[in-house]
Q: What sequence folds into this?
Protein backbone atom coordinates (compact mmCIF):
# COMPACT_ATOMS: atom_id res chain seq x y z
CA UNK A 1 0.00 0.00 0.00
CA UNK A 2 1.29 3.46 -0.88
CA UNK A 3 1.69 5.28 2.41
CA UNK A 4 1.98 8.62 0.62
CA UNK A 5 -1.62 8.71 -0.58
CA UNK A 6 -3.77 5.90 0.80
CA UNK A 7 -4.91 5.66 4.40
CA UNK A 8 -4.25 2.74 6.76
CA UNK A 9 -7.20 0.71 8.11
CA UNK A 10 -8.63 2.41 11.18
CA UNK A 11 -8.91 0.90 14.65
CA UNK A 12 -12.45 0.01 15.68
CA UNK A 13 -13.45 1.12 19.20
CA UNK A 14 -15.53 -0.87 21.68
CA UNK A 15 -18.36 1.65 21.45
CA UNK A 16 -18.42 1.35 17.67
CA UNK A 17 -18.57 -2.42 17.96
CA UNK A 18 -21.48 -2.34 20.37
CA UNK A 19 -23.34 0.20 18.22
CA UNK A 20 -22.85 -1.97 15.13
CA UNK A 21 -24.23 -5.01 16.94
CA UNK A 22 -27.29 -3.06 18.06
CA UNK A 23 -27.78 -1.80 14.50
CA UNK A 24 -28.12 -5.40 13.30
CA UNK A 25 -31.33 -5.51 15.31
CA UNK A 26 -32.56 -2.09 14.17
CA UNK A 27 -31.48 -0.64 17.51
CA UNK A 28 -34.23 -2.54 19.31
CA UNK A 29 -32.74 -2.97 22.81
CA UNK A 30 -34.80 -6.03 23.74
CA UNK A 31 -33.98 -7.92 20.55
CA UNK A 32 -30.29 -7.05 20.79
CA UNK A 33 -30.15 -8.09 24.46
CA UNK A 34 -31.85 -11.41 23.71
CA UNK A 35 -29.34 -12.10 20.94
CA UNK A 36 -26.40 -11.20 23.22
CA UNK A 37 -27.70 -13.55 25.91
CA UNK A 38 -27.73 -16.42 23.41
CA UNK A 39 -24.17 -15.57 22.38
CA UNK A 40 -23.17 -15.74 26.03
CA UNK A 41 -24.73 -19.20 26.34
CA UNK A 42 -23.02 -20.47 23.17
CA UNK A 43 -19.73 -18.64 23.82
CA UNK A 44 -17.46 -21.65 23.31
CA UNK A 45 -18.91 -22.30 19.85
CA UNK A 46 -18.07 -18.93 18.29
CA UNK A 47 -15.54 -17.12 20.48
CA UNK A 48 -12.40 -18.41 18.76
CA UNK A 49 -13.62 -17.33 15.32
CA UNK A 50 -14.31 -13.84 16.68
CA UNK A 51 -11.05 -13.53 18.68
CA UNK A 52 -13.14 -13.53 21.84
CA UNK A 53 -11.83 -16.60 23.67
CA UNK A 54 -9.70 -14.53 26.07
CA UNK A 55 -12.64 -12.43 27.28
CA UNK A 56 -15.25 -13.13 29.92
CA UNK A 57 -18.49 -14.55 28.44
CA UNK A 58 -20.86 -11.65 29.12
CA UNK A 59 -23.65 -10.09 27.07
CA UNK A 60 -21.78 -6.79 26.81
CA UNK A 61 -18.61 -8.48 25.58
CA UNK A 62 -20.67 -10.49 23.08
CA UNK A 63 -22.07 -7.28 21.60
CA UNK A 64 -18.72 -5.48 21.51
CA UNK A 65 -16.64 -8.34 20.13
CA UNK A 66 -19.02 -9.50 17.40
CA UNK A 67 -19.74 -5.92 16.36
CA UNK A 68 -16.05 -5.05 16.27
CA UNK A 69 -15.26 -8.15 14.25
CA UNK A 70 -17.94 -7.21 11.73
CA UNK A 71 -16.54 -3.69 11.32
CA UNK A 72 -12.95 -4.97 11.20
CA UNK A 73 -13.81 -7.43 8.42
CA UNK A 74 -15.54 -4.66 6.48
CA UNK A 75 -12.52 -2.41 6.97
CA UNK A 76 -10.18 -5.20 5.88
CA UNK A 77 -12.27 -5.84 2.76
CA UNK A 78 -12.20 -2.16 1.92
CA UNK A 79 -8.43 -1.98 2.13
CA UNK A 80 -7.92 -5.15 0.15
CA UNK A 81 -9.35 -3.19 -2.77
CA UNK A 82 -7.22 -0.23 -1.69
CA UNK A 83 -4.14 -2.46 -1.92
CA UNK A 84 -5.08 -3.35 -5.49
CA UNK A 85 -5.65 0.31 -6.33
CA UNK A 86 -2.22 1.14 -4.89
CA UNK A 87 -0.68 -1.38 -7.26
CA UNK A 88 -2.59 0.15 -10.16
CA UNK A 89 -1.23 3.57 -9.20
CA UNK A 90 2.26 2.08 -9.50
CA UNK A 91 1.48 0.74 -12.96
CA UNK A 92 1.29 -2.91 -11.99
CA UNK A 93 -1.17 -5.48 -13.35
CA UNK A 94 -4.00 -5.96 -10.87
CA UNK A 95 -6.23 -8.87 -9.88
CA UNK A 96 -9.52 -7.71 -8.34
CA UNK A 97 -9.93 -9.11 -4.80
CA UNK A 98 -13.71 -9.43 -5.34
CA UNK A 99 -15.95 -9.80 -8.37
CA UNK A 100 -17.60 -6.60 -9.64
CA UNK A 101 -21.17 -5.97 -8.51
CA UNK A 102 -24.11 -7.03 -10.66
CA UNK A 103 -26.23 -4.29 -9.08
CA UNK A 104 -23.66 -1.67 -8.07
CA UNK A 105 -24.17 1.31 -5.81
CA UNK A 106 -25.06 4.60 -7.47
CA UNK A 107 -22.33 6.86 -8.81
CA UNK A 108 -22.37 9.28 -5.87
CA UNK A 109 -21.93 6.45 -3.36
CA UNK A 110 -19.17 4.99 -5.50
CA UNK A 111 -17.26 8.26 -5.64
CA UNK A 112 -17.64 8.67 -1.86
CA UNK A 113 -16.24 5.14 -1.37
CA UNK A 114 -13.31 5.98 -3.63
CA UNK A 115 -12.46 9.13 -1.69
CA UNK A 116 -12.72 7.23 1.63
CA UNK A 117 -9.47 5.34 1.07
CA UNK A 118 -7.36 8.45 0.46
CA UNK A 119 -5.90 10.91 2.90
CA UNK A 120 -7.84 13.76 1.30
CA UNK A 121 -10.00 14.49 -1.72
CA UNK A 122 -7.20 16.65 -3.11
CA UNK A 123 -4.76 13.73 -2.91
CA UNK A 124 -7.34 11.42 -4.49
CA UNK A 125 -7.99 13.81 -7.38
CA UNK A 126 -4.27 14.01 -8.04
CA UNK A 127 -3.74 10.24 -7.89
CA UNK A 128 -6.63 9.47 -10.19
CA UNK A 129 -4.51 10.69 -13.10
CA UNK A 130 -2.28 7.66 -12.55
CA UNK A 131 -5.30 5.40 -12.81
CA UNK A 132 -6.11 6.96 -16.17
CA UNK A 133 -2.55 6.39 -17.36
CA UNK A 134 -2.59 2.77 -16.19
CA UNK A 135 -6.21 2.04 -17.20
CA UNK A 136 -5.37 -1.23 -18.97
CA UNK A 137 -3.71 -2.57 -15.80
CA UNK A 138 -6.80 -2.53 -13.62
CA UNK A 139 -10.05 -1.37 -15.26
CA UNK A 140 -11.08 -4.71 -16.76
CA UNK A 141 -10.53 -6.51 -13.44
CA UNK A 142 -12.68 -3.89 -11.68
CA UNK A 143 -15.55 -4.23 -14.18
CA UNK A 144 -14.74 -1.01 -16.04
CA UNK A 145 -14.06 -2.45 -19.47
CA UNK A 146 -16.96 -0.49 -21.03
CA UNK A 147 -15.97 2.83 -19.52
CA UNK A 148 -13.82 5.50 -21.12
CA UNK A 149 -10.57 6.22 -19.25
CA UNK A 150 -11.67 9.46 -17.61
CA UNK A 151 -11.21 10.72 -14.02
CA UNK A 152 -14.88 10.52 -13.04
CA UNK A 153 -15.22 7.02 -14.48
CA UNK A 154 -12.08 5.90 -12.63
CA UNK A 155 -13.60 7.04 -9.33
CA UNK A 156 -16.92 5.33 -10.07
CA UNK A 157 -15.42 2.01 -11.21
CA UNK A 158 -12.94 1.81 -8.33
CA UNK A 159 -15.49 3.07 -5.79
CA UNK A 160 -18.08 0.49 -6.83
CA UNK A 161 -15.63 -2.33 -6.18
CA UNK A 162 -14.76 -0.87 -2.79
CA UNK A 163 -18.47 -0.70 -1.92
CA UNK A 164 -19.03 -4.23 -3.23
CA UNK A 165 -16.18 -5.64 -1.12
CA UNK A 166 -17.48 -3.89 1.99
CA UNK A 167 -21.05 -5.12 1.40
CA UNK A 168 -19.85 -8.68 0.80
CA UNK A 169 -17.89 -8.65 4.03
CA UNK A 170 -20.76 -7.22 6.03
CA UNK A 171 -23.21 -9.77 4.67
CA UNK A 172 -20.79 -12.62 5.35
CA UNK A 173 -20.08 -11.67 8.96
CA UNK A 174 -23.71 -10.80 9.69
CA UNK A 175 -24.70 -14.27 8.51
CA UNK A 176 -22.05 -15.83 10.76
CA UNK A 177 -23.26 -13.80 13.76
CA UNK A 178 -26.81 -15.02 13.20
CA UNK A 179 -25.55 -18.59 13.01
CA UNK A 180 -23.67 -18.08 16.28
CA UNK A 181 -26.85 -16.77 17.91
CA UNK A 182 -28.56 -19.99 16.77
CA UNK A 183 -25.90 -22.02 18.58
CA UNK A 184 -24.04 -23.30 15.52
CA UNK A 185 -20.32 -24.12 15.68
CA UNK A 186 -18.39 -21.31 14.00
CA UNK A 187 -15.03 -21.83 12.29
CA UNK A 188 -12.52 -19.01 11.67
CA UNK A 189 -13.62 -17.07 8.60
CA UNK A 190 -11.23 -14.14 8.18
CA UNK A 191 -10.00 -13.77 4.61
CA UNK A 192 -6.25 -13.78 3.86
CA UNK A 193 -4.58 -10.59 2.79
CA UNK A 194 -2.63 -10.10 -0.46
CA UNK A 195 1.06 -9.72 -1.04
CA UNK A 196 2.86 -7.01 -2.98
CA UNK A 197 2.28 -8.86 -6.25
CA UNK A 198 -1.47 -8.99 -5.68
CA UNK A 199 -1.46 -12.81 -5.41
CA UNK A 200 -3.31 -14.60 -2.60
CA UNK A 201 -0.99 -15.84 0.14
CA UNK A 202 -1.77 -17.75 3.34
CA UNK A 203 -2.63 -15.38 6.18
CA UNK A 204 -0.20 -17.37 8.34
CA UNK A 205 2.80 -16.20 6.34
CA UNK A 206 1.65 -12.62 6.70
CA UNK A 207 1.17 -12.97 10.46
CA UNK A 208 4.56 -14.62 10.91
CA UNK A 209 6.12 -11.66 9.13
CA UNK A 210 4.11 -9.17 11.17
CA UNK A 211 5.08 -10.94 14.39
CA UNK A 212 8.69 -9.84 13.87
CA UNK A 213 7.47 -6.52 15.27
CA UNK A 214 7.78 -7.62 18.88
CA UNK A 215 6.83 -4.22 20.24
CA UNK A 216 3.52 -4.40 18.39
CA UNK A 217 2.90 -7.97 19.55
CA UNK A 218 3.34 -6.87 23.15
CA UNK A 219 1.04 -3.89 22.59
CA UNK A 220 -1.62 -6.15 21.06
CA UNK A 221 -1.46 -8.49 24.03
CA UNK A 222 -1.59 -5.57 26.45
CA UNK A 223 -4.68 -4.36 24.61
CA UNK A 224 -6.37 -7.66 25.47
CA UNK A 225 -5.39 -7.17 29.12
CA UNK A 226 -6.74 -3.63 29.13
CA UNK A 227 -9.98 -4.55 27.38
CA UNK A 228 -10.76 -7.12 30.05
CA UNK A 229 -9.77 -4.77 32.88
CA UNK A 230 -6.98 -7.10 33.94
CA UNK A 231 -5.38 -6.84 37.37
CA UNK A 232 -2.94 -8.90 39.43
CA UNK A 233 -5.91 -11.01 40.54
CA UNK A 234 -7.47 -11.31 37.08
CA UNK A 235 -5.01 -11.79 34.25
CA UNK A 236 -5.80 -12.49 30.62
CA UNK A 237 -3.60 -15.52 30.04
CA UNK A 238 -1.91 -16.94 33.15
CA UNK A 239 -5.05 -18.43 34.70
CA UNK A 240 -7.29 -18.31 31.64
CA UNK A 241 -8.16 -21.98 31.99
CA UNK A 242 -8.35 -24.89 29.61
CA UNK A 243 -12.11 -24.46 29.24
CA UNK A 244 -11.36 -21.53 26.92
CA UNK A 245 -8.70 -23.35 24.91
CA UNK A 246 -9.31 -24.30 21.27
CA UNK A 247 -7.27 -27.44 22.03
CA UNK A 248 -9.44 -28.73 24.85
CA UNK A 249 -10.87 -31.51 22.69
CA UNK A 250 -7.37 -32.56 21.54
CA UNK A 251 -6.10 -33.47 25.01
CA UNK A 252 -7.37 -37.05 24.87
CA UNK A 253 -5.22 -37.58 21.74
CA UNK A 254 -1.99 -36.15 23.20
CA UNK A 255 -0.51 -39.50 24.34
CA UNK A 256 -0.94 -41.06 20.90
CA UNK A 257 0.38 -37.96 19.11
CA UNK A 258 3.54 -38.04 21.23
CA UNK A 259 4.33 -41.45 19.74
CA UNK A 260 4.47 -39.96 16.23
CA UNK A 261 7.66 -40.05 14.19
CA UNK A 262 8.53 -38.55 10.81
CA UNK A 263 7.50 -40.55 7.75
CA UNK A 264 7.28 -40.04 3.99
CA UNK A 265 4.84 -37.14 4.45
CA UNK A 266 6.32 -35.49 7.55
CA UNK A 267 10.01 -34.74 8.07
CA UNK A 268 12.22 -33.43 10.87
CA UNK A 269 15.38 -31.29 10.87
CA UNK A 270 17.77 -34.23 10.76
CA UNK A 271 21.26 -34.23 12.24
CA UNK A 272 21.89 -30.54 11.49
CA UNK A 273 20.00 -27.44 10.40
CA UNK A 274 21.21 -24.09 9.05
CA UNK A 275 19.34 -21.30 10.81
CA UNK A 276 17.59 -18.69 8.73
CA UNK A 277 18.97 -15.19 9.04
CA UNK A 278 22.19 -16.06 10.87
CA UNK A 279 23.28 -19.00 8.62
CA UNK A 280 24.50 -20.66 11.80
CA UNK A 281 24.65 -24.47 11.64
CA UNK A 282 23.08 -26.24 14.61
CA UNK A 283 24.07 -29.84 15.29
CA UNK A 284 21.64 -31.86 17.38
CA UNK A 285 23.11 -34.08 20.11
CA UNK A 286 21.87 -37.35 21.63
CA UNK A 287 19.43 -36.78 24.47
CA UNK A 288 21.47 -37.19 27.67
CA UNK A 289 21.17 -40.24 29.86
CA UNK A 290 19.69 -39.84 33.32
CA UNK A 291 22.20 -38.14 35.60
CA UNK A 292 24.13 -36.46 32.80
CA UNK A 293 23.78 -32.80 31.84
CA UNK A 294 23.67 -31.61 28.24
CA UNK A 295 25.75 -28.83 26.79
CA UNK A 296 23.66 -25.65 26.83
CA UNK A 297 24.16 -22.70 24.47
CA UNK A 298 24.06 -19.98 27.12
CA UNK A 299 23.81 -17.18 24.55
CA UNK A 300 21.11 -18.88 22.51
CA UNK A 301 18.24 -17.01 24.15
CA UNK A 302 19.78 -13.56 24.37
CA UNK A 303 16.94 -12.24 22.20
CA UNK A 304 14.46 -12.65 25.07
CA UNK A 305 13.19 -9.50 26.79
CA UNK A 306 14.92 -8.34 29.93
CA UNK A 307 11.90 -9.22 32.06
CA UNK A 308 12.62 -12.88 31.35
CA UNK A 309 15.18 -13.54 34.06
CA UNK A 310 15.90 -17.21 33.31
CA UNK A 311 14.96 -19.50 30.44
CA UNK A 312 15.83 -22.83 28.89
CA UNK A 313 14.64 -24.14 25.52
CA UNK A 314 15.25 -27.60 24.09
CA UNK A 315 14.48 -28.21 20.42
CA UNK A 316 14.07 -31.82 19.31
CA UNK A 317 14.98 -33.38 15.98
CA UNK A 318 14.48 -36.96 14.84
CA UNK A 319 17.58 -38.81 13.70
CA UNK A 320 17.16 -42.52 12.93
CA UNK A 321 13.87 -42.64 14.85
CA UNK A 322 15.35 -41.15 18.04
CA UNK A 323 15.16 -37.58 19.24
CA UNK A 324 18.35 -35.62 19.36
CA UNK A 325 18.27 -32.23 21.02
CA UNK A 326 19.75 -28.75 21.04
CA UNK A 327 19.68 -26.92 24.36
CA UNK A 328 19.64 -23.13 24.65
CA UNK A 329 19.61 -21.02 27.78
CA UNK A 330 19.51 -17.66 29.45
CA UNK A 331 20.77 -18.10 32.99
CA UNK A 332 19.49 -21.66 32.57
CA UNK A 333 21.53 -22.97 35.50
CA UNK A 334 20.73 -20.09 37.85
CA UNK A 335 18.95 -21.46 40.90
CA UNK A 336 15.71 -19.79 41.94
CA UNK A 337 12.15 -20.08 43.16
CA UNK A 338 9.91 -21.49 40.46
CA UNK A 339 6.74 -21.60 42.47
CA UNK A 340 4.00 -24.05 41.45
CA UNK A 341 5.70 -25.11 38.22
CA UNK A 342 7.70 -27.63 40.28
CA UNK A 343 4.57 -29.49 41.42
CA UNK A 344 4.83 -31.98 38.58
CA UNK A 345 8.12 -33.31 40.00
CA UNK A 346 6.81 -35.11 43.10
CA UNK A 347 3.98 -36.55 41.00
CA UNK A 348 6.50 -38.06 38.57
CA UNK A 349 8.52 -39.36 41.50
CA UNK A 350 5.44 -41.16 42.86
CA UNK A 351 4.72 -42.66 39.46
CA UNK A 352 8.30 -43.95 39.14
CA UNK A 353 8.06 -45.55 42.59
CA UNK A 354 4.71 -47.16 41.80
CA UNK A 355 5.98 -48.70 38.57
CA UNK A 356 9.18 -49.83 40.32
CA UNK A 357 7.03 -51.81 42.74
CA UNK A 358 4.56 -52.93 40.06
CA UNK A 359 5.77 -52.49 36.46
CA UNK A 360 2.46 -53.46 34.86
CA UNK A 361 0.34 -51.09 36.95
CA UNK A 362 -1.60 -48.45 35.07
CA UNK A 363 -1.76 -45.41 37.33
CA UNK A 364 -5.30 -44.78 36.04
CA UNK A 365 -6.32 -47.89 37.99
CA UNK A 366 -4.96 -46.42 41.20
CA UNK A 367 -6.48 -44.33 43.97
CA UNK A 368 -4.85 -42.48 46.80
CA UNK A 369 -6.23 -43.58 50.14
CA UNK A 370 -6.01 -41.96 53.53
CA UNK A 371 -4.33 -44.46 55.86
CA UNK A 372 -6.14 -42.73 58.71
CA UNK A 373 -9.44 -43.24 56.81
CA UNK A 374 -10.46 -39.61 57.33
CA UNK A 375 -10.97 -38.96 53.63
CA UNK A 376 -12.51 -40.98 50.81
CA UNK A 377 -10.46 -42.81 48.20
CA UNK A 378 -9.60 -40.53 45.29
CA UNK A 379 -8.56 -41.43 41.70
CA UNK A 380 -4.90 -40.67 41.02
CA UNK A 381 -5.64 -38.94 37.71
CA UNK A 382 -8.31 -36.70 39.24
CA UNK A 383 -5.86 -35.53 41.88
CA UNK A 384 -3.19 -34.68 39.30
CA UNK A 385 -5.85 -32.97 37.18
CA UNK A 386 -6.74 -30.78 40.16
CA UNK A 387 -3.09 -29.87 40.78
CA UNK A 388 -2.54 -28.77 37.17
CA UNK A 389 -5.88 -27.26 36.17
CA UNK A 390 -6.58 -25.44 39.46
CA UNK A 391 -10.09 -26.84 39.18
CA UNK A 392 -10.49 -27.23 42.97
CA UNK A 393 -12.80 -30.18 42.48
CA UNK A 394 -11.17 -32.05 45.34
CA UNK A 395 -8.88 -29.62 47.12
CA UNK A 396 -6.48 -26.77 46.47
CA UNK A 397 -3.57 -27.34 44.12
CA UNK A 398 -1.11 -26.45 46.90
CA UNK A 399 -2.46 -28.95 49.40
CA UNK A 400 -2.56 -31.74 46.82
CA UNK A 401 1.01 -31.03 45.70
CA UNK A 402 2.11 -31.16 49.34
CA UNK A 403 0.38 -34.55 49.59
CA UNK A 404 2.34 -35.92 46.63
CA UNK A 405 5.55 -34.97 48.48
CA UNK A 406 4.58 -37.28 51.34
CA UNK A 407 5.75 -40.45 49.57
CA UNK A 408 9.45 -39.64 49.90
CA UNK A 409 11.58 -37.85 52.46
CA UNK A 410 12.46 -34.32 51.50
CA UNK A 411 16.20 -35.12 51.23
CA UNK A 412 15.34 -38.27 49.26
CA UNK A 413 13.21 -36.35 46.78
CA UNK A 414 15.91 -33.70 46.38
CA UNK A 415 18.51 -36.37 45.65
CA UNK A 416 16.17 -38.01 43.13
CA UNK A 417 15.86 -34.71 41.26
CA UNK A 418 19.65 -34.38 41.15
CA UNK A 419 20.02 -37.95 39.89
CA UNK A 420 17.53 -37.29 37.08
CA UNK A 421 18.95 -33.98 35.85
CA UNK A 422 22.63 -34.38 36.73
CA UNK A 423 22.50 -30.90 38.26
CA UNK A 424 24.08 -31.08 41.75
CA UNK A 425 23.00 -27.58 42.78
CA UNK A 426 19.25 -28.09 43.17
CA UNK A 427 17.32 -27.73 46.43
CA UNK A 428 13.93 -29.42 46.64
CA UNK A 429 12.96 -29.73 50.29
CA UNK A 430 10.28 -27.05 50.42
CA UNK A 431 6.49 -27.13 50.61
CA UNK A 432 3.70 -25.29 48.81
CA UNK A 433 2.35 -23.04 51.54
CA UNK A 434 -0.44 -25.36 52.75
CA UNK A 435 -0.60 -28.60 54.75
CA UNK A 436 -0.92 -31.82 52.78
CA UNK A 437 -4.53 -32.64 51.85
CA UNK A 438 -3.89 -36.16 53.12
CA UNK A 439 -0.95 -36.38 55.51
CA UNK A 440 -0.71 -40.17 55.44
CA UNK A 441 -1.56 -41.17 51.86
CA UNK A 442 -1.06 -44.52 50.19
CA UNK A 443 -1.32 -45.56 46.55
CA UNK A 444 -3.72 -48.45 46.07
CA UNK A 445 -4.16 -50.43 42.84
CA UNK A 446 -7.89 -51.16 42.49
CA UNK A 447 -7.29 -53.82 39.86
CA UNK A 448 -4.69 -55.71 41.87
CA UNK A 449 -6.29 -54.87 45.21
CA UNK A 450 -2.88 -54.03 46.55
CA UNK A 451 -1.14 -51.14 48.29
CA UNK A 452 1.81 -50.11 46.15
CA UNK A 453 3.21 -47.12 48.04
CA UNK A 454 3.04 -45.82 51.57
CA UNK A 455 4.03 -42.44 53.08
CA UNK A 456 7.57 -41.66 54.17
CA UNK A 457 8.93 -39.64 57.04
CA UNK A 458 9.39 -36.00 56.19
CA UNK A 459 13.04 -35.53 57.06
CA UNK A 460 14.88 -32.22 57.00
CA UNK A 461 12.90 -29.53 55.20
CA UNK A 462 14.20 -26.56 53.24
CA UNK A 463 13.42 -24.61 50.08
CA UNK A 464 12.42 -25.40 46.50
CA UNK A 465 15.20 -23.82 44.44
CA UNK A 466 15.62 -25.26 40.97
CA UNK A 467 16.68 -24.05 37.51
CA UNK A 468 14.94 -23.63 34.17
CA UNK A 469 17.21 -26.40 32.90
CA UNK A 470 15.83 -28.78 35.56
CA UNK A 471 12.25 -28.03 34.58
CA UNK A 472 12.91 -28.30 30.85
CA UNK A 473 14.64 -31.63 31.45
CA UNK A 474 11.62 -33.03 33.30
CA UNK A 475 8.99 -31.99 30.77
CA UNK A 476 11.06 -33.07 27.77
CA UNK A 477 11.64 -36.50 29.33
CA UNK A 478 7.90 -36.84 29.78
CA UNK A 479 6.89 -35.75 26.29
CA UNK A 480 9.71 -37.51 24.44
CA UNK A 481 9.55 -40.78 26.41
CA UNK A 482 9.04 -42.87 23.26
CA UNK A 483 11.93 -41.29 21.38
CA UNK A 484 14.80 -41.28 23.86
CA UNK A 485 16.92 -44.24 24.94
CA UNK A 486 15.99 -46.40 27.92
CA UNK A 487 18.93 -44.94 29.83
CA UNK A 488 17.52 -41.43 29.32
CA UNK A 489 13.99 -42.21 30.53
CA UNK A 490 12.47 -41.81 33.98
CA UNK A 491 13.67 -44.83 35.94
CA UNK A 492 11.03 -47.60 36.05
CA UNK A 493 8.25 -45.37 34.66
CA UNK A 494 5.94 -47.01 32.11
CA UNK A 495 4.12 -45.13 29.36
CA UNK A 496 0.82 -46.70 30.41
CA UNK A 497 1.15 -44.55 33.54
CA UNK A 498 3.02 -41.56 32.11
CA UNK A 499 0.29 -40.97 29.54
CA UNK A 500 -2.08 -40.15 32.40
CA UNK A 501 0.25 -37.34 33.48
CA UNK A 502 0.41 -36.09 29.88
CA UNK A 503 -3.38 -35.81 29.73
CA UNK A 504 -3.50 -34.03 33.08
CA UNK A 505 -0.81 -31.55 32.00
CA UNK A 506 -2.88 -30.75 28.93
CA UNK A 507 -5.33 -29.05 31.28
CA UNK A 508 -2.93 -26.43 32.64
CA UNK A 509 -4.75 -23.21 33.46
CA UNK A 510 -2.05 -21.14 31.73
CA UNK A 511 -2.58 -20.76 27.96
CA UNK A 512 0.52 -18.92 26.70
CA UNK A 513 1.09 -21.46 23.91
CA UNK A 514 -2.53 -21.03 22.75
CA UNK A 515 -1.93 -17.29 22.54
CA UNK A 516 1.29 -17.77 20.60
CA UNK A 517 -0.26 -20.09 18.02
CA UNK A 518 -3.17 -17.73 17.45
CA UNK A 519 -0.98 -14.61 17.35
CA UNK A 520 1.24 -16.22 14.71
CA UNK A 521 -1.78 -17.22 12.62
CA UNK A 522 -0.81 -20.89 12.86
CA UNK A 523 -4.16 -22.28 13.99
CA UNK A 524 -5.15 -23.43 10.52
CA UNK A 525 -1.66 -24.49 9.46
CA UNK A 526 -0.73 -27.07 12.08
CA UNK A 527 -1.80 -30.63 12.62
CA UNK A 528 -1.76 -33.00 15.61
CA UNK A 529 -1.03 -30.28 18.21
CA UNK A 530 0.19 -31.18 21.70
CA UNK A 531 0.47 -28.61 24.49
CA UNK A 532 1.40 -29.87 27.94
CA UNK A 533 2.47 -27.32 30.52
CA UNK A 534 2.61 -26.20 34.14
CA UNK A 535 2.41 -22.64 35.39
CA UNK A 536 3.94 -21.11 38.45
CA UNK A 537 3.50 -17.67 39.94
CA UNK A 538 3.84 -15.67 43.10
CA UNK A 539 4.76 -12.33 44.61
CA UNK A 540 8.17 -12.17 46.22
CA UNK A 541 8.12 -9.63 49.03
CA UNK A 542 11.89 -9.98 49.49
CA UNK A 543 12.49 -9.19 45.80
CA UNK A 544 9.53 -6.80 45.62
CA UNK A 545 8.20 -8.21 42.35
CA UNK A 546 5.77 -10.61 40.71
CA UNK A 547 7.28 -13.76 39.25
CA UNK A 548 5.60 -15.93 36.60
CA UNK A 549 6.85 -19.30 35.39
CA UNK A 550 5.85 -21.28 32.32
CA UNK A 551 7.07 -24.81 31.67
CA UNK A 552 5.79 -26.39 28.46
CA UNK A 553 6.27 -28.91 25.70
CA UNK A 554 4.71 -27.86 22.41
CA UNK A 555 4.57 -30.18 19.42
CA UNK A 556 2.74 -30.00 16.10
CA UNK A 557 3.01 -30.86 12.43
CA UNK A 558 3.86 -27.63 10.59
CA UNK A 559 2.04 -27.70 7.25
CA UNK A 560 3.41 -24.39 5.95
CA UNK A 561 6.28 -25.99 3.98
CA UNK A 562 3.69 -27.76 1.82
CA UNK A 563 2.83 -24.42 0.20
CA UNK A 564 6.26 -24.54 -1.43
CA UNK A 565 5.98 -28.18 -2.44
CA UNK A 566 7.94 -29.50 0.55
CA UNK A 567 6.83 -32.08 3.13
CA UNK A 568 5.24 -30.95 6.38
CA UNK A 569 7.67 -30.72 9.30
CA UNK A 570 7.33 -32.05 12.84
CA UNK A 571 8.16 -29.32 15.35
CA UNK A 572 8.73 -30.31 18.97
CA UNK A 573 10.15 -28.00 21.61
CA UNK A 574 10.35 -27.91 25.40
CA UNK A 575 10.83 -24.75 27.42
CA UNK A 576 10.88 -23.15 30.84
CA UNK A 577 10.79 -19.40 31.46
CA UNK A 578 10.68 -17.27 34.58
CA UNK A 579 9.72 -13.63 34.20
CA UNK A 580 9.75 -10.92 36.83
CA UNK A 581 8.21 -7.45 37.08
CA UNK A 582 6.57 -5.13 39.55
CA UNK A 583 3.55 -4.95 37.21
CA UNK A 584 1.65 -8.26 37.05
CA UNK A 585 -0.49 -7.30 34.05
CA UNK A 586 2.50 -6.26 31.95
CA UNK A 587 4.34 -9.42 33.01
CA UNK A 588 1.43 -11.59 31.86
CA UNK A 589 1.48 -9.95 28.43
CA UNK A 590 5.28 -10.12 28.33
CA UNK A 591 5.36 -13.85 29.05
CA UNK A 592 2.81 -14.47 26.30
CA UNK A 593 4.81 -12.28 23.91
CA UNK A 594 8.09 -14.10 24.59
CA UNK A 595 6.56 -17.56 24.20
CA UNK A 596 5.16 -16.24 20.91
CA UNK A 597 8.63 -15.13 19.82
CA UNK A 598 10.17 -18.49 20.71
CA UNK A 599 7.57 -20.37 18.66
CA UNK A 600 7.87 -17.88 15.79
CA UNK A 601 11.60 -18.50 15.60
CA UNK A 602 11.09 -22.26 15.77
CA UNK A 603 8.62 -22.18 12.85
CA UNK A 604 10.76 -19.84 10.74
CA UNK A 605 13.84 -21.89 11.71
CA UNK A 606 15.65 -18.89 13.10
CA UNK A 607 15.99 -20.98 16.28
CA UNK A 608 16.65 -24.68 16.67
A:
Amino acid sequence: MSTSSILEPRTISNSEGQAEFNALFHNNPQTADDAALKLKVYWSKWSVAFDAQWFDPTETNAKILTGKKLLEEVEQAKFKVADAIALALDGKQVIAPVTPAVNPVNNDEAVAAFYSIFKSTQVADKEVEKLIANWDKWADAFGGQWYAPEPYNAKVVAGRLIAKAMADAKNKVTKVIMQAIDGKQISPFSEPTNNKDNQPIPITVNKLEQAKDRVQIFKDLMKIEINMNASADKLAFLYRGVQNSPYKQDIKDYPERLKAKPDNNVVSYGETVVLKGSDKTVTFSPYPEVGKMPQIDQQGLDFLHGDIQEACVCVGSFVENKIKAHWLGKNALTKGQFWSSTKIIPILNVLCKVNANSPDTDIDNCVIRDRDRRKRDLPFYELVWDVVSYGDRIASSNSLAAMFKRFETRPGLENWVKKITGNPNSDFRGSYGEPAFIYSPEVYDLKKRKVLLIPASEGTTGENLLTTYDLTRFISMLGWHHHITQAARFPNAQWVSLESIVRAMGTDACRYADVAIKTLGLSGSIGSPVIISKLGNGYSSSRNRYEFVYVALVQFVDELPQAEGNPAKLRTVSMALRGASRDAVQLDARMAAEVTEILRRVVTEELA
The longest helix spans residues 59-89. The chain is about 40% helix and 15% strand. Residues 192-203 have pLDDT under 50 and may be disordered.
